[in-house]
Known about the structure:
- By secondary structure, the protein is mainly α.
- It has a domain at 17-101.
- Helices cover 54% and strands 0% of the residues.
- The chain contains five helices and no strands.
- It is flat.
- The protein starts with 16 loop residues before the first helix and ends in a 24-residue tail after the last helix.
Amino acid sequence: MAKVGRPKAEFDLPEGWQDEILSLYSQGASDVEVRGLIYKWRKSFSQDLWTRWLIEIPEFSLTIKKGRELCEIWWQKNGRTNLKDKDFNSTLWYMNMKNRFGWADKQENKNEHSGEIKITREIVK
């Protein structure tokens, strides 16, 4: 019987790829920089293939999740340890945290009430 569906994404990275990717993330690198590294290794790479690998290759997905955590740790530590440095650009750091990690100036409550209360009563005879 013929296989049905989309073929599995070809996964070919050099030996030790996890360590190199995690090393890059641990220096505060973004997903874009990691995709650039993979592009360098493979001589081609696309956002679509990245997405497929995240879905279809558990080892890759786990490595990227760990890497993203290492990246955020790097950025938070950098902010914390440079607070007293007069040359530290805290505004640039803060904007980076907002854009990379979803930080916000205020919390938006999407379930805000309109102020209108509608009372309905069912009369049973």
